[in-house]
Fold this protein.
Amino acid sequence: MASADVVAGRGGETAQTLDRGLRLLHLVADAPGGLTVTEAATRLGIGRAAVYRLVGPLTGHGMLRRDADGRLRLGAGVLHLARRAQPLLAEGALPALRRLAEQAGATAHLTVVEGGEGVALVVVEPSWTSFHVAYRTGARHPLDRGAAGRAILAGRAGVAEPVSSSGELQSGAYGVAAPVLGVPGLEASVGVVALAPLDVGLVGPQVRAAAMAVAAALR
């Protein structure tokens, strides 16, 4: 019985350490300027020594790094995992994006947050239009400009309604986007961009339905 208690105790400690390590990664990811060990300890509610014990293996696996000032920042290992995950996101989102592009007659896209910016991860162009926006996969933009980024910011506040924009990223381009909600660890939006003004009353529900379909596919 004592042996079983020891095993259970070690299992609990391992789970707690894993939880703290993951929380530390999230904290560093949300801090554009990085975190000091003291700041990380305060936010996690643990001692500096415990943070150092977390930093060691995370640094060894490339998940964290220390910059010249000793601040904790995300390491290249996180980018490696993100690149491995991106094809899975794209595969899950493609059916809904294809339907949306055909319905709206506009270029549809899935935009995700990376490094504090919005990045077009998947782009689908409509098949039947004479002219449409050529939106490059990998295009980056600030979150506070354009429908895709502002929809992500709205999603952070729990607002699911579509957001529209006009000429914020490119003169003559119009966008409508809605946040992808309910997928743990993912901040994203689904939207369309067109060369002419979009009827938000018509396109908005289509975009919202596509965002919900993407969320369901990625859960």
